[in-house]
Design brief:
Two copies of one chain form a homodimer.
Chain A lengths: L2 H7 L6 H8 L3 E5 L4 E3 L7 E7 L2 E6 L5 E7 L4 E2 L2 H6 L6 E4 L3 E7 H10 L1 H27 L2 H11 L3 H4 L2 H8 L3 H7 L2
Antiparallel strand pairs in A: 1-8, 2-7, 3-6, 3-8, 4-5, 4-7
Helix pairs in contact in A: 4-5, 8-9
The first copy, chain A, binds a DNA duplex (30 and 30 nucleotides) through helix 9.
Chain lengths: 186, 186
DNA sequence: TCACAAGTGTGACCTACCTCACATCAACAA
DNA sequence: TTGTTGATGTGAGGTAGGTCACACTTGTGA
């Protein structure tokens, strides 16, 4: 079975015909390490789904410090959602930390799909609620937990992340300096 | 026009008949200051919409410190979304900071409404995306800005909040001690 | 294959914010 | 009225985590 079907079926079950119809709205792309799929300032017309690889969505603040909003790995959705949903320019960039295989759907195709296929509207609605709750938990964790605990929670949740991405990016995600992160586990 | 119709019309336009149908799924409640609408440990079966008043959603961490996830004022939606969406027990509480007038819809009625009325599915989907983006911006702000700037941003966004709620709750929302907050504007 | 950039660890020092303590004042119930 | 509780300000001193500097190792592109 196509991995995207497996993924969607976790939330709404599709018949093979329905999935073919959905798949007809997606296109595949391969990207190499260091290539962008969204760049700050872009009009963002695509939402990506990760078949293989690892990406970061991030930006630099005005002191030049990098902040990471999200790592995206297999089965994750990624784009600049603010720009994608509200048709504005991206404030973040998304680029590949490894060579990646992605599927994407354009804004127009997504609109078409959601307005004609209730199941997919429900699928994305569920995803978006789950995203909201995850983001809320991250706020709670930033308010509540010291750096060491945030580090340990992340380690528990994604044990592979630490082998896959440089530590300074983990630090940028957790909101600590790379020096402090280094001392947390030494 | 009913304020809830005005609110929904901002995202999807409803005919009067459609709105009547929607309204048929809501019930009104009045609550006094200090009363709960969600308590930690509850099974959460209602989502509330604030017609009048002000509430907080919050919890205490294991050191006894209060953290505020959200203030809810006129036109805001509030409940414990994690519990409401995933049918689990509430980890947060929601209570009234003033006497409140609320409308609520039960989980079952919301399911009924969204599965039979595409417009309301779209309405809540949009709301939930907006919530995700807002929460993401709060994460960014926690990662990026020192306490003073977070305070000023909140002040700009909701100038009335500072007259409506005690400063220690503002501090609990911003993630600083009430002493530090006090020194930020003195 | 080699040069240069990127990743990582660690010491020394600094600072934003925390905690604890106490004082004042307003709100409100008996 | 008055006692109690909550809201707010402010001083003193402590600490988690930041910054800067340097060393060493590990990619990786020409």
């Amino acid at each position: 079975m196509h991995p995207l079907k497996t993924h969607i079926d976790e939330i709404v079950e599709l018949t093979d015909e329905e999935f073919e119809h959905v798949m007809g709205h997606f296109r595949a792309v391969k990207k190499r390490k260091h290539q962008f799929i969204v760049q700050e300032g872009d009009l963002v017309n695509k939402e990506f789904w990760v078949l293989k690889g690892c990406l970061k969505s991030y930006f630099f603040d005005d002191t030049g410090k990098e902040h990471i909003l999200q790592f995206a790995m297999e089965n994750w959705w990624v784009t600049d959602y603010d720009a994608f949903v509200n048709r504005t320019r991206a404030r973040t960039s998304v680029d590949c930390l490894e060579d990646c295989e992605l599927l994407y759907i354009t804004y127009e195709d997504r609109e078409k799909l959601t307005s004609t296929m209730h199941k997919m509207e429900r699928f994305w609605a569920k995803k978006s609620k789950a995203g909201y709750i995850a983001m809320q938990n991250r706020v709670l964790s930033l308010l509540q937990n010291p750096a060491k605990e945030r580090y340990e929670m992340l380690l528990n949740q994604y044990p592979h992340l630490f082998q896959r991405v440089p530590k300074k990016l983990i630090a940028a995600y957790l909101g600590v300096s790379r020096e402090t992160l280094s001392r947390l586990y030494s």
